[in-house]
């Protein structure tokens, strides 16, 4: 069998069910372009180590280039007899340059160091794509914050009316975690960018190949320090799977807010037709499916992370075939985010907010009660007392079915003599918001500052 990388010591070929279980070409074919690139680099180090003549190197590179273009245009693909991408590509090389030359390439490397290296190369590109997609969502959020200056909305804790805030402040609160996710990707890449190539099966290479040279050739920051660790550790993949899951969780929180905001009960926002769906039975429906899929995908990505961790748990050193299960969850997390991120970006960029509705609801539920308490503190009243007095004001207003600002002078004075009519200065939504102007607060000056910082962060990342 041409695609088999082993067999010398076996009298019989693998049983069909054994081969079916073992096979990975249906997913590891994604590594094919990286495998060919790494093979070209490997041929160069073999040449430098005196194991491949200059003429052979030229012929080998030409064969690998032909193979790469045949892989790219689909002319060459995995055959049913191929166990994995590495075997298939060796078969492809031998078909192109002959057994004598094609059979030389595998010297000094094992599929164990190969697959660990190629997975890292794939992941670095995947993380980059995800990072750029996350920046697009963050950009859409910051742009919406910028496009809606001074728009107020109810701020909630426990999903209950809490304090009024600016819409921009809320949108930036969704952008911040996404920017941290991008920073996490950049940081994780430092650990992914270490090359296992040259580690062989587990013990390193005896053929005088230079792992540092091949690492540099393949764009890695460095070569691994320990060949056993390099072939058997996948914490780099688990870390990436965590960042992907975290990003999906952050997107699910954004999605959940959009879902709530778009209900008639909230009425804060209308979704663009292009980013919502209808019902097959209820003609009036306009559903926030993009946001719901963000919630749904988050569950899936959490599963990918926990599944991978379970695969890694308690594996003895060094390589075990369990590790073949490492790629699908990570590939899937990237694929799902690549579907989700442009859709979320489109959803956010086309949201139409309803400032009137949000302004009307902003003071509802006595959300200015904290402003009464803090105003009393500024008059010298201890906060404990101020909290009681503000609470009493809420009770009276609630009893009478009016807002806090509607309580008359006499009522205020009867609640507490410190409650002079001047308190009404802070009993407006805008007054409340603009008073919270310390660093990180919801006042417009702070939101404008955040927007400047967010654009700078986006440019920098
Ligand atoms: N396909 C395997 C993987 O994805 C690599 C092959 C290693 N096989 C082996 N018998 N050492 O991990």
From TrEMBL:
GO molecular function terms attached to this record: argininosuccinate lyase activity
Main localisation: cytoplasm
Catalysed conversion reaction: 2-(N(omega)-L-arginino)succinate = fumarate + L-arginine
Domain Fumarate lyase N-terminal: 9-303
Subcellular localization: Cytoplasm
Superkingdom of this protein's organism: Bacteria
Pathway(s) this gene product operates in, as recorded in its UniProt entry: Amino-acid biosynthesis; L-arginine biosynthesis; L-arginine from L-ornithine and carbamoyl phosphate: step 3/3
Sequence ranges assigned to domain Argininosuccinate lyase C-terminal in this UniProt record: 366-434
Family: Belongs to the lyase 1 family. Argininosuccinate lyase subfamily.
Protein name per Swiss-Prot or TrEMBL: Argininosuccinate lyase
Species this protein is from: Gordonia spumicola
